[in-house]
Structure formats: C-alpha cells, structure tokens
Design a protein that fits this description.
Number of helices of chain A: 11
Strand content of chain A: under 5%
Low-confidence stretches of chain A: 301-305
Helix content of chain A: over 70%
Order of helices and strands of chain A: HHHHEEEHHHHEHHH
Largest sheet of chain A: 2 strands, antiparallel
Radius of gyration of chain A: 19 Å
Order of helices and strands of chain B: EEEHEEHEHHHHEHEHEEHH
Largest sheet of chain B: 6 strands, mixed
Number of strands of chain A: 4
Oligomer: heterodimer
Mean pLDDT of chain A: 91
Number of helices of chain B: 10
Radius of gyration of chain B: 17 Å
Number of strands of chain B: 10
Helix content of chain B: 25-40%
C-alpha cells in the first residue's frame, strides 16, 4: 500500500514535468502542424539557466534562498527561454513555412543540435550539480503517511505545475486571444479573415510553449539535483510521446498524456524494475495507439508530419 | 467614388494565370453579384480582395485606400469581411466563440460586440438558440447562417459572400437570400459570388459575368436576366 502510494506520488511529480514539456510540442503542432524537435533543448536550456540564475542570485549576490527568490528565478528563466523561442521561430522556422513541412522539420533538428552544442560549449559536457545551498530555500519538511514520503519540495513543484497548466487552460479556453489561438490551429486563412494576425499568434505559441518547458527544466534540475546537456533529448522524447499519447495538437491531451506516462513509468519502476520502465511505458503507448490512433483525447488524425 | 474599385487585376496560383485583368466596382449600398462557371475565378477574385492571395498586377481600392498590398488581417480593420466558400466555420469552437472570432477586430470593445451580437441574433434567431453548441454539429443551413453572422460581427462596410447557397435545400436558399436582402437594407454593401445565377441575379442590383479569368459581361441584374447569352450559358435555358 505504502509502496503503491509512493509510486503514484512520484509518478504524478515526474508526469507533471512531462506534461509541462509536452504542452510545447502539442501547441506548436496545433498551430503549425510542425514537430518542434528543438523544444526538448529549450527545456534543457531552461534547466541550465535555472541553475545559472540560482547560482548568481543566491551564491554570488548572496540573496537568501527563500521562496520569493525561487519565484523570481522561475519568472526570469521562463521569460528568457520564451524569448529564445521567439528568436528560434523567426530565424529557423518562419522563412521556411512556404517551403512545406519537411524543410521546417529538418531545420528543427538543426536547431536542436545547435542548442545542445551551444550549451555544451558554454557550460561543459559534464554533469552539473545543483549546490547544496539551494536546499535551505525550501524547508526540509517531509510528511509520511501510509508508508509514503512526500517532501515540501515535491508539493511545491506539483502546485507550480498545476497552476501553470490551469492558467494555460484558462487562457486558451476563456480569453479572446486564447480562442484566436484555437481558431488559428483550425484554419489559418479563415483566421486571417477574422482580422487575426496569424504570425503573432504563432509567435505567442513559441513564447508560451518554451516558457512552460523551461519551468519544467528548472524543476527537473531541482528535483534530481543534476543536469546535463543532452537532457533535452531524453525528456523531449518522453514528453513528445506524452503529447502523442494524449492526442497531439490537443492541450488537455498533453496534460493527461504527461501525467499518465509519469504514472506508468513510476509504477513500472516500483513493481517491476527501473530497467524495464521505458519498455513498459512504450509498450503501453503502442497498445493505446493501436486502440486509439489519434491518442486519448485527439479528434483528428495526426496524419502529416 | 465607388466603395470598391478593382482595376485590371491579374492573379496566379503558382504558374496558373487565374485572373486575367479583372476590373469591377461596387458602389456603396449595392448588392453586386459575380457569376460564372466553376473555375472562372470568382473565389480567386474574393481572395484577392480580402488579401489571402496577393495579385501580381492591378489595383484594388477600397474606401479611397489602396489595399492590394495589405496583409489580410489588416484589410478586415478597413471594413471588409467575408463568409468564405464552404462556410469554413471553426468546427470545434462553439457558436458563440465563432461569433466572437468574427468580432476579433473590435478588440475588447464589449459594448460594440454585444450590439453586433444582438443584430446577428435578430437576423438569425436560430444561432441564439444554439449559441453554446459546438459549431461542427450544426446543420448545413445553420452553418451558413453562422458563417454570415460571423462576418457581420465586425460590422463591415462591405460583406463578401462566397457561394452562400452551396449545398443547401431550395427552401433554405430562399431564406438565406431573403436575409441577404435584409442585411443590405440595413446599409451593408454586398458582393455576392454565386453559381446559382438565377437567384443571384434576382437579388442583385448589378452583376458581372466572369469567364476564365475575364469579365465578359456586366450590367444591371435585370438586364442580364433577360440576356440571351446569359440565359443559355448560366440559366440553363435553350
């Protein structure tokens, strides 16, 4: 019982990271029908910038590592990575929209390699660990019930993830610009006939997606305590899988897919073995896609890559 | 000065020369109809006016302003709205959300949006009954009402309708054309593209006949209805 509860909690935490990253894949796919292969690397960039900002604010500038400083780190890193997202769209994707889908995907792969190698050059090819100091930021509180442990850090991360997702859900479904985003995802030309500046909506998607991914990056760094420059590849693949699982292009689908993938992995780790978690997770993915080719919440077939 | 004035318009799809020097004008308050066979360039003309397709040559002047080099979304702000061919409603959005998108160019002007919504609901009471329904689940006639209503939400000076009768039962076609007349009597200028030439000519003040990218005939709609050539080619009479 305790074991089960523990794995569910862990799965929920990791799953919320996957969900945050998956949103970026699914939103870009939604408006452009493009798989942004560089998205995982933007997430990785978020993890590195999280560490760098933490170091400079707490270690160099001597700010006490409290909750407020942590929030500040999130705001700064999300803003910077969101900015990188816009620049990426401008120089790597926008010039290619007229050339069809394939060139943009090749460009996305190129951007991915560029970002990975850029971070490797700047911060080195070795693991980077988060300093011990940051741990004092969040009091070492831990709850134990029914044999499962839950730390305050974990609770905070869950809260941040769910707040971000709730905010996105509200924005997309209940605001004018959010509705315009859904309209653009359905039909660019008709959206233009409504007076919607489609390029601006696309740019906005390239801010929101990477910013959410960056928040996931900071949290993955804090949660595991160490990061490396290929982080974007492994997590990106998982999050992309989560987006497909939920139905690519569908925002609630990415959230559900991410959480589900996290839970499956955690349960596989807890009850089978850590070595088998990927095999089991992807096995279940294949089964779900055989039964529901459009993903759990997907309506339209993701027919074109 | 006419509300819309098109001069020697040439447009291409890739290498295909679709419009070969189209000139036409629409005066304020008129219903002008553009008729012609499939592939004559009717939709292409509308797409050029609304900015979805950039003409290679020629000039489009609307309300005293050259608009043929403006991006599509800005042309909406000048006062041209279009109910595109095939309705193109946003199928997974609700009726209400579709209408809100029609009013996108009004920004956050809640009062104006509400006033326009009232007007649209008066024209199409059916839409009010179904305002919370997902648009894709509406019937064909209701979708056409939504497409027209959505275009009216920005209170355009010029409303362009592309094949509003397409795929509708004859009864519904009549009702839709009646509503178009009503919209026009409220002061909205209308440019109507139709394959249903008879209905379009009965409704319009003036009409142009488009044939493989060229205007071959134009004049008062009544006159065209009686024209020998038009009767043979477009009204199915011998």
């Amino acid at each position: 019982m305790g074991q089960l509860l523990q794995q569910l909690l862990n799965g929920l935490t990791i799953g919320s990271f996957y969900a945050l990253i998956a949103l970026g894949y699914t939103m870009v796919y939604g408006v452009l029908k493009l798989i942004n292969f560089a998205h995982g690397d933007l997430f990785m960039l978020g993890a590195y910038l999280g560490l760098v900002t933490l170091m400079s604010l707490v270690v160099s500038m001597g700010l006490s590592a409290n909750l407020l400083v942590f929030m500040l780190i999130f705001v700064i890193v999300m803003a910077v990575v969101g900015g990188v997202g816009i620049v990426l769209e401008r120089i790597a994707y926008r010039p290619l929209y007229k050339a069809g889908r394939l060139p943009a995907i090749v460009s996305a792969l190129g951007a991915s390699i560029f970002l990975q190698n850029g971070v490797m050059l700047l911060y080195g090819a070795r693991y980077r660990t988060f300093p011990e100091e940051f741990k004092t930021a969040v009091p070492e509180v831990m709850w134990t019930f029914a044999g499962a442990r839950l730390t305050l850090m974990q609770v905070l991360m869950l809260i941040i993830s769910f707040l971000l997702m709730a905010a996105l859900y509200f924005f997309v479904n209940y605001t004018r610009v959010g509705t315009a985003m859904r309209a653009v995802a359905l039909d660019h030309d008709t959206a233009r006939l409504m007076g919607i500046d489609v390029n601006r909506i696309i740019a906005l998607v390239f801010v929101i997606g990477p910013a959410l991914g960056a928040a996931g990056g900071i949290m993955v760094g804090l949660f595991y305590g160490r990061i490396y420059f290929t982080l974007g590849w492994s997590y990106g693949l998982k999050a992309f899988t989560a987006a497909i699982l939920g139905g690519i292009g569908n925002i609630p689908g990415a959230m559900v897919g991410g959480l589900l993938l996290g839970l499956i992995e955690a349960l596989a780790t807890g009850f089978v073995s850590d070595a088998w978690k990927n095999a089991i997770a992807f096995f279940i993915l294949v089964i779900i896609l055989i039964l529901r080719p459009t993903g759990l919440l997907g309506e339209r077939v993701a027919e074109k890559l | 000065m006419a509300l819309l004035e098109i001069e020697n318009l040439h447009a291409y799809y890739g290498h295909v020369h679709v419009l070969k020097g189209v000139s036409l004008r629409v005066e304020e308050g008129e219903i002008v109809s553009l008729i012609g066979a499939n592939g004559a360039g009717k939709t292409t003309t509308l797409r050029s006016i609304s900015g979805l397709l950039r003409p290679r040559e020629g000039q489009i002047v609307f309300d005293g302003q050259v608009i043929n080099d403006m991006p599509a979304h800005q042309i909406v702000y000048r006062g041209i709205c279009q109910a595109p061919e095939g309705r193109k409603i946003f199928s997974t959005l609700t009726v209400q959300e579709n209408l809100n998108m029609g009013a996108y160019s009004l920004g956050n002007d809640k009062a104006a949006i509400e006033a326009n919504r009232r007007r649209v609901f008066e024209l199409f009471p059916r839409l009010e009954e179904r305002k919370n329904q997902i648009a894709g689940t509406l019937s064909g006639g209701e979708q056409q009402m939504l497409a027209i209503g959505r275009a009216l939400m920005a209170r355009p000076k010029l409303l362009m309708l592309d094949e509003p009768s397409l795929g509708l039962a004859p009864m519904l076609v009549q009702a839709i054309f009646q509503t178009i007349r009503e919209i026009n009597s409220q002061g909205v200028t209308i440019l109507l593209v139709e394959q249903n030439a008879r209905a379009a000519l009965r409704l319009a003040h003036r009409a142009y006949v488009l044939e493989t990218g060229r205007i071959v005939l134009s004049g008062p709609a009544q006159q065209l209805l009686g024209d020998e050539q038009v009767r043979k080619a477009y009204l199915g009479e011998s």
